[in-house]
Amino acid sequence: MPKKQFILKENGRHTLELTWRAFWKNFTVYYDGAPIGKIEGGGKGMRTGKTFPLPDGSELSIKLKQTLIATELEVLHNGHPMPGSATDPIQRIKQAYVIIFIVGAFNLVLGIAGILFETKLLYLLGAGWGTAVFGLFLLILGWLVKARRSQPALITALVLYLADSLLGIAAVIAADETPGIGGLIVRVLFIIGIAQGVIAIREMNRA
Question: What is this structure's pTM?
Answer without folding.
Answer: 0.84
